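Example 4.3 (complexes with small molecules)
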Amino acid sequence: MKPFKNLSISFFYFFVSTLIFISLLAYAARFDIKNNCNITIWAAATPGGGRQINPGGTWSLEVTPNSSSTSGRIWARTMCSFNGSGVGKCQTGDCGGLFHCQGGGSAPCTLAEFALNQFGNLDFYDISLVDGFNVPMVFNSTSPKCSGIDCTGDLNGNCPTELKAPGGCYNPCTVFKTEEYCCTGVDCKATNYSMFLKGGCPGAYSFPLDDKLSTYTCPSGSNYNVVFCPLGSL
Ligand SMILES: *[C@@H]1O[C@H](CO)[C@@H](O)[C@H](O)[C@H]1NC(C)=O
Ligand SMILES: *[C@@H]1O[C@H](CO)[C@@H](O)[C@H](O)[C@H]1NC(C)=O
Ligand SMILES: *[C@@H]1O[C@H](CO)[C@@H](O)[C@H](O)[C@H]1NC(C)=O
Ligand SMILES: *[C@@H]1O[C@H](CO)[C@@H](O)[C@H](O)[C@H]1NC(C)=O
Ligand SMILES: *[C@@H]1O[C@H](CO)[C@@H](O)[C@H](O)[C@H]1NC(C)=O
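Answer. The structure with 2-acetamido-2-deoxy-beta-D-glucopyranose bound is encoded below.
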């Protein structure tokens, strides 16, 4: 009986791990990242690394959540140059000089953020300007039933002088580093600067404790579009 019993136990484990594998795949998401700008963008993603996307090009990125990692972010890097080992730098969104990003990008950069398969079998997603703004973006689901987020205002052209950065516009926290702008204190409200950022990017997080309306949900297993410069040019 013993060999038979061992066999059935290993079959049981095979069956369970296959089920877990299939259920994780069911929560995978594809992000179609499109560069609609008239300049080259070095898209960055964690997880995912990086990809050079010429004007009009796309990068189809699959993200499969696992027990230790369900969330991620996607952003644009501009004016990059890298050597043959993938080491160099970008004017905005640089991630420690690496072509294949392993951590976050430096400010200013418009961020698409997501967390897959959270409670209620929902994906959560948002656009954050907490690290400022570099490139206009639309972040939506391929399903028209889920809300899209538009961040298409001219926040570079209209950026207040105090926040101007080469190739972008900083969040006031990055520049002034005060409680009021960084929300390190308990009381944290919108400011004239966060209202300026929100004006060009109505669905985005404009300061760290921005309202709950800035987070969107879609059923797990959905796929998404991240479009840089949805209105064309930059
Ligand atoms: C989970 O996913 C992350 C991001 O894709 C990856 O870096 C990590 O190695 C994965 N961990 C396991 C245990 O598979
Ligand atoms: C790329 O630059 C890095 C850092 O300066 C250097 O360590 C590496 O050898 C360079 N690779 C090539 C192929 O030039
Ligand atoms: C998502 O946004 C892009 C760019 O604005 C648009 O072309 C596409 O139709 C939108 N998709 C949905 C499902 O709304
Ligand atoms: C925003 O408010 C600060 C502090 O009250 C002020 O110094 C600054 O001029 C204002 N900036 C804009 C663009 O309104
Ligand atoms: C991109 O479009 C902007 C705005 O129309 C224009 O000023 C700029 O010269 C264009 N850049 C290129 C590389 O075509």
